[in-house]
Amino acid sequence: MPLEAFFSRHVVLTSSVIACAHQLGVPIPVLPVLVWTGAMTYSEPLVAAGALVASALAGLVGDLVLYGIGRRFGFRVLKLICRLTISPDSCVHQTALAFDRRGPSLLITGSLLPGIGTIASPLAGALRLPLATYLIYDGAGSFLRSALGIALGFVFHGQVTQLDEGLERLSTGATLFACALLGGYIAYRLFERWRFARTLQTARVSVDELYDMISRGDQPIVLDVRSNDHRRLDRRQIPGAHLVDLNDLQATLAAIPRDREVVVYCACPNEAASVTVALKLRASGFRRVRPLAGGIDAWESAGFAVHNPKGSAI
Questions:
Q1: In this structure, how many other beta carbons lie within 10 angstroms of the beta carbon of residue 310?
Q2: Under a CB-based contact definition with an 8 Å cutoff, are residues 23 and 118 in contact?
Q3: Between the CA atoms of 55, 77, 195 and 281, what dihedral angle is there, to the nearest 10 degrees?
Q4: Which listed site, 5, 29, 71, 161, has its alpha carbon 20 to 30 Å from 133?
Q5: Do both 193 and 63 map to the same domain?
Q6: Residue 223 belongs to what domain range?
Q7: At which of 199, 230, 255 does a domain end?
Q8: Quick one: 212 and 65 in the same domain?
Q9: Is the domain of 279 the same as that of 131?
Q10: How far apart, in whole angstroms, are the C-alpha atoms of residue 160 and residue 267?
């Protein structure tokens, strides 16, 4: 049986499997599939309702897996998930900041945003969001995503049906075309990762260099730019570091002497947060600012002292 015919005969199964796989980080865009599902079930309201419920539950199951992983292994697993999902490393940083500002409601709106939708669930687990609260918000987000996609399929069912019939006539050619589109999507995501990696070429300071600077009495200004939620659960801090509220970065800029060496650290994949802040500081006229290679994890792994103070924000 041709692949296209199989999908058409098993609309609910197809949309559910892809919804779950997408939430687990497989680089398959789910919204076009949900739109197609809505178009295919336009004349069968009960089937459409079943597809809505099944795809929403399947997406929730995929999210629950990542939530459990985040709850079990904490923030460090986000680095691995970020790499497996070929999302830009900055997604972890952006999602953490959004979670800081909006709390669990991000699980609803974030379900519609590429990258953030996948990172939000393990982040919620790492932040120890209660399971009941997580299920309510993430379930609402999963339902919203499915409902929106299927509703769009209803609205454009005529156009989608014509496209589907044309693809069925093309048979093997359609399969190759679909594979080419998927390959192009993956290539785009990889390009986004590569492009962000280019910004990471900015000079870093190693943990040994930072330790030597502190030991010599150079008095570098060390900035901890992890999210507030992250610091609440992981209170490790490099001695003397200042806690930065990234939602009010201008306050940080105003308080930093421009003639001092500034070192920025985080706990993101490839130091995404510290690189982002370092670039912003440089754009504001700071010339002696560098991200710390490896962040807080590298500092502790090197055997240097960490402590858990209340800290002072600047």
A1: 7
A2: yes
A3: 120
A4: 29
A5: yes
A6: 207-301
A7: 199
A8: no
A9: no
A10: 44
Asked, for residue 311, whether it belongs to a domain, the answer is: no
Minimal CA–CA distance to 63: which of 123, 20, 98? 20
Do 213 and 195 share a structural domain? no
Spatial strand order in the sheet of 262-265: 242-243, 221-224, 262-265, 289-291
Question: What CATH number has the domain bearing residue 215?
Answer: 3.40.250.10
Cβ neighbours for 129, distance < 8 A, ≥ 6 positions apart: 104
Q: Who contacts 36 (Cβ-Cβ below 8 Å, separation ≥6)?
A: 15, 153, 160, 164
pLDDT tens-place string over residues 132-160: 999 999 999 999 999 999 999 898 888 77
| Overall domain count for the chain | 2
Please enumerate in sequence order all residues whose Cβ is within 8 A of that of 48, keeping only pairs 6 or more positions apart, or say none: 37, 38, 41, 42, 150, 154
Cα angle, residue 275 at apex, residues 102 and 267 outer, rounded to 5°: 60
Report residue 307: phi and psi, to 5°: -140, 175
pLDDT, tens only, 162-204 = 666 665 555 555 556 666 776 776 676 666 656 655 554 557 8
Whether residue 45 is contained in a domain is answered as: yes
Whole-model pTM? Answer: 0.65
- Considering the domain architecture, whether residues 84 and 113 belong to the same structural domain is answered as yes
Average pLDDT estimate for 117-142? 90
Q: Which residues pair with 307 in a beta bridge?
A: 237
| Domain match, 8 and 154 both | yes
Contact 39, 153 (CB under 8 A): yes
Give the separation between CA 135 and CA 233, rounded to whole angstroms: 21
191 and 214 in a single domain? The answer is no
Tell the residue number behind the tokens 């209340």, with chain if given.
310
What pLDDT shows up at residue 313?
A: 40
Phi and psi at residue 287, in whole multiples of 5°? -105, -25
